[in-house]
Design brief:
This protein is mainly beta. It has 3 domains: about 1-215, Pectate Lyase C-like, CATH 2.160.20.10; about 375-510 and about 525-705, Single-stranded right-handed beta-helix, Pectin lyase-like (Pectate Lyase C-like), CATH 2.160.20.10; about 720-1000, Neuraminidase, CATH 2.120.10. It is built from 6 helices and 81 strands. The strands form 12 sheets. The protein has a 25-stranded mixed sheet that branches. The chain has a 20-stranded mixed sheet that branches. β56 and β57 form a beta hairpin. The chain is globular.
């Protein structure tokens, strides 16, 4: 009796919400390769070691594994560390619970997380750049999950936080693709949060109590985070507190809390909600920060509210969007940069359609259908299927499909040589797609030569199929192969499916993906890239729901191809990457929505790739869409999206970017930093039918109607002349005392000169990696080169001997009041992937504070021109990869499109691309940029100032501002401007450098 009473006391102290959660795995699936936790599970004994031991033992030689946690209450006394690629599933008649007992040491101050998902050494830097600060009880530094952390998961396990743990959070989950939390209840009591740092996707998770349900910054790869079919209730501060996480909500209910979703002070987010409910939310359903900033993009469709007087509150201005009555529906709400039409620049707008309701409507059906119970699963290995990577399992698998509705594939490689044809009701399931794969052998006869598509899996028209938890690999050389030909209907579903062939691909034969490559010198032919049918092909009336799907197979011509269907389709957190021509393609498609689709182009396979191509299609929604090119990109790319004969396309919350986190260590220590590339897509969208370019790359609203709106003319008119063209990409310009322009074409290591008298000239073209230029008072060029671990600085006489140069060593910084200090004209300082939360102030360090901190830091060393007139501070340079000539280098001074200069104490203008703002600041000692002030809420690649104090900002077009910051017009160019600099004999010519051409703009 005493034991029962003590248990009841403990349960009461743990949480006010004690209803038992329904287990979704009533029995453990049959898989001999899974590891089961051998703990006590009574809620009193310390099971930390038992749980950790099972998780550590689960990883196989490929780095993946499955753990089963039986029903029970597992008390933890320190953080559990889940390595990359390990999935933990609760199994049993009752859902197991991880329990944090009352006043557990280590969970009273700061933030301590019970379950920490960790990462690998993504860039082989050895040291841990930024140890996870929320680990409790670890003996060594712990590496955070990162953009190379895939497949990890926790499912059907609850979290309970006992009293006296105000700093406790349940799970740290800063993941990349194919990771998830699902079927979990977080009973938080007075704890800090259920999830601290989120990533990828969560489904059917429910947060009860706590200060917050979720608190999170950006995900590790800076991609979207999607939350499906989940609830929040009883949080004391807010259900969700977040920034920059690109939050996508589908079928989420928030109730009995002061604030629904709070975007942190000084931060933006791309927030999109579909079918979100707010009930008894007293202060505001959503709090929006950082108004009039391109990265603030907020939208809802079909939200409903009850007893929620204010739908949206703007933190900075105090403006509100109020509801209508006790119950109301928000049919649509958008805030952010709103484009009036294609080819036009945006304005900040709030748009809301809100209608009163007589009563609160019924809760929507789940976005994700539940899987059949484990008792209905048929293990294919009991039907003669081997899954050993050697036996041809085609016939046995087809026989299993023909005779059983629900098929379960335990871990294994299932070799097939022909199409598996599903019945209309077939359900095919696995638990881990990295190590549960259907695989075509290379050079399979059925898929050789030229011919019609040969899919690995084909579904029937209007089928009600479910595919979940498996990987599909079409092999390296199989020209007629496609992984999945999907004709199933509107209720069908594909979840947790990986198309193998890209990152994180264990192979059946144990050989690397490139094992079958030739060596012709053609990278496409060598790798057999772009040589198969699309990986996922939805056609012939196909539709349904696709969630947490990853399709990065470079061997395929596209990752996700949809054609000839008007059956509704839903895309939730789908990542399509690393294809040579196209990622997503739509052709003759209607009635689809894409929520949180993400694409990525790598440096080798993606220089010419289009992220999204839409042909002959109507009634399509894209929301929280990311079109990303990696930082290492060296090749200009015209557009992320191409349209052909398509209309009624709605874009909401668009993010076209090229920055990436890099985990690096150098002489000054370790850090994980976000850096921008010079080669994002030039345009967000080109309508090939209408021949219109949309230059804005960050915006909240763009509608593509049947007839485009006329483009607003720039004002006032200016004279624009093309001086030279045919370049790869030019920047790094400087102007001499006589107005002569010098600039760099880095791809071909050329330094050019342009004058009215002689036109374009090549000054140097030696292999010296020039990046940025400046000219000293003696007329010599100071050249910043990307060669060497720290970069190299040298001086040349543009009219002197071609074989002469003077290298300049970095020396200690010193006061040089008569010299001109050089600084980057464009900066990117955004989130160094270390936690920015300060529990003592309950605030996050803002982007503006980061910029002021980093730009305002004096540099201990500097490079001085031979005549002493120029000073280039020695900015920190980070390397990714090997420390030799092939390693990539990043620094503010290398990544910028050009340099600006002024004497100490003078005020200059710079643009901070990570905020989308232009600043002014004063040059201080050691190249510090101090007294920063926001000048304009538009920032881009470059900024220049004329002799009258007018400021010109390059951001898709050229925006003009008076000296007081008032907008005075816009200059429209034939292509996107990159660097602006005034020169010419009278210094009144605005030289504009682009990827392809050099322009002159004159009054």
């Amino acid at each position: 009796m005493r034991v029962i009473i003590l248990a009841a006391v403990f349960l009461a102290s743990a949480s006010p919400a004690l209803a038992a959660s329904q287990s979704v795995f009533l029995t453990a699936p049959d898989d001999p390769r899974a590891i089961s936790v051998k703990g006590v599970g009574d809620g009193r004994a310390d099971d930390t070691d038992a749980v950790q031991h099972a998780i550590d033992a689960a990883r196989d030689k490929t780095g993946h594994g499955v753990v089963f946690l039986p029903s029970g209450r597992y008390r933890l006394s320190r953080s559990i560390l889940v390595p990359p690629g390990v999935r933990v599933f609760g199994v049993g008649a009752t859902r197991p619970v991880f329990v944090l007992g009352p006043s557990t040491p280590g969970f009273q101050k700061g933030v301590g997380t019970m379950i920490v998902f960790t990462g690998g050494d993504q860039y082989s830097v050895g040291e841990v750049p930024v140890p996870v600060p929320t680990v409790v009880g670890a003996k060594e530094a712990v590496r955070d999950a990162n953009s190379g952390t895939f497949y990890s998961a926790l499912s059907n396990v609850d979290i309970e936080i006992g009293a006296g743990n105000p700093a406790a959070a349940g799970v740290r989950f800063r993941m990349a693709q194919h990771a998830f939390l699902s079927h979990m209840d977080f009973r938080l009591g007075a704890g800090f949060a259920g999830v601290y740092q989120a990533g990828n996707i969560m489904e059917d998770v429910h947060f009860h109590g706590g200060r917050y349900g979720i608190v999170t910054e950006k995900t590790s790869p800076a991609w979207q985070f999607t939350l499906l079919d989940s609830t929040f209730d009883g949080q004391s501060d807010a259900a969700i507190r977040e920034h920059e996480v690109d939050l996508t909500l589908v079928n989420v209910t928030i109730s009995d809390t002061p604030v629904g979703i709070e975007v942190d002070r000084g931060y933006s987010d791309s927030l999109w909600g579909k079918n979100v409910r707010f009930e008894n939310v007293s202060k505001a359903a959503v709090v929006i920060s950082n108004e009039d900033t391109v990265f603030t993009q907020v939208g809802f469709e079909n939200a409903v509210a009850s007893n929620t007087p204010v739908f949206a509150r703007f933190r900075d201005s105090g403006k509100t969007v109020v509801g209508k009555g006790r119950h109301y529906r928000v049919a649509s709400f958008t805030y952010g940069l709103t484009l009036p039409g294609q080819g036009q620049m945006g304005e900040y707008k709030t748009q809301a359609e809100i209608n009163a309701l007589p009563a609160s409507p019924a809760v929507m059906a789940p976005a994700i259908r539940p899987l059949p119970p484990v008792s209905a699963w048929t293990n294919v290995k009991t039907l003669g299927v081997k899954g050993d990577g050697e036996t041809d399992d085609t016939a046995a698998l087809q026989a299993a499909i023909d005779s059983h509705r629900v098929l379960y594939l335990p871990i294994g490689f299932y070799k097939i040589t022909d199409t598996l044809r599903l019945r209309p009701d077939t359900v095919m399931l696995g638990l881990h797609p990295a190590v549960t794969q259907l695989v075509l052998p290379d050079n399979n006869p059925r898929h050789a030569g030229v011919g019609a598509v040969g899919p690995m899996i084909a579904t029937p028209r209007s089928g009600d199929n479910i595919l979940a938890g498996i990987g599909l690999f079409t092999g390296r050389i199989n020209p007629r192969a496609s992984a999945l030909l999907w004709r199933s209907g509107a209720t069908s579903q594909v979840t947790d499916v990986k198309i193998m062939g890209g990152g994180g691909t264990p192979t059946m034969d144990g050989k690397p993906l490139g094992a079958a490559q030739a060596r012709s010198g053609d990278p496409v032919a060598d790798g057999r890239w772009d040589a198969q049918y699309p990986s996922i092909w939805v056609t012939d009336g196909g539709g349904g729901t696709f969630a947490n799907v990853w399709s990065p197979n470079t061997f395929a011509s596209a990752g996700f191809y949809i054609s000839d269907t008007d059956t509704p389709g839903h895309i939730y957190e789908v990542s399509v990457e690393h294809h040579v021509r196209n990622e997503f393609v739509l052709d003759n498609v209607q009635n689809w929505e894409f929520l949180a689709p993400q694409t990525e182009q790598e440096v080798g396979d993606g220089p010419d790739t289009v992220s999204l191509e839409i042909r002959n299609s109507r009634n399509i929604l894209f929301a929280n869409y990311h079109g990303y090119r990696v930082t290492r990109s060296y090749h200009p790319a015209k557009t992320a999206v191409k349209l052909f004969n398509s209309s009624d396309i709605r874009f909401r919350n668009v993010h076209i970017n090229a920055e990436s986190g890099i985990a690096l260590c150098g002489a000054s220590g370790c850090g994980t930093y976000l850096r921008a590339s010079k080669y994002p897509f030039e345009n967000a969208l080109i309508d090939e039918t209408q021949q219109v370019e949309t230059r804005e790359r960050e915006f909240a609203v763009l509608n593509i109607p049947a007839k485009p709106q006329p483009t607003a003319a720039a004002s006032p008119p200016m004279k624009i002349k093309t001086l030279a063209s045919g370049f790869w990409s030019i920047s790094g310009a400087t102007v001499g005392a006589d107005g002569t322009l010098y600039f760099v074409e880095k791809r071909f290591q050329r330094i050019y000169r342009w004058t009215t008298a002689r036109g374009l000239e090549v000054v140097r073209d030696h292999s010296l990696d020039p990046v940025n230029l400046a000219i000293d008072r003696s007329g010599k060029l100071l050249v910043l080169s990307s060669f060497g671990p720290e970069g190299t600085v040298y001086s040349i006489d543009p009219d002197g001997p071609k074989d002469a140069l003077t290298t300049i060593a970095a020396t200690p910084a010193a006061a040089r009041p008569t010299a001109t200090t050089l600084l980057p004209v464009s900066w990117w300082n955004n989130g160094e992937f270390k936690d920015q939360y300060d529990s003592s102030t309950d605030k996050f360090t803002t982007l503006a504070e980061m910029f002021a901190r980093d730009a305002g830091a004096p540099k201990p060393k500097e490079y001085v021109s031979p005549d002493g007139s120029l000073v280039l501070p020695a900015f920190r340079v980070w390397e990714q990869g090997p420390s030799d000539h092939v390693g990539w280098r990043w620094s503010d001074i290398l990544q910028t499109h050009g340099l600006i200069g002024a004497a100490p104490g003078e005020r200059v203008f710079v643009t901070n691309e990570s905020e989308g703002k232009t600043y002014s600041g004063k040059i201080g000692p050691g190249g510090a940029l101090t007294e920063l002030k926001v000048f304009a809420n538009r920032g881009g690649e470059s900024v220049a100032v004329d002799g009258q104090g007018q400021v010109f900002v390059a951001n898709g077009q050229i925006f003009k501002y008076a000296a007081d910051g008032q907008s005075t017009g816009r200059i429209d160019l034939p292509e996107r401007p990159l660097q602006l600099i005034f020169g010419g004999p009278d210094r009144r010519t605005l030289f504009v450098l682009t990827h392809n051409a050099l322009y002159a703009v004159t009054p």
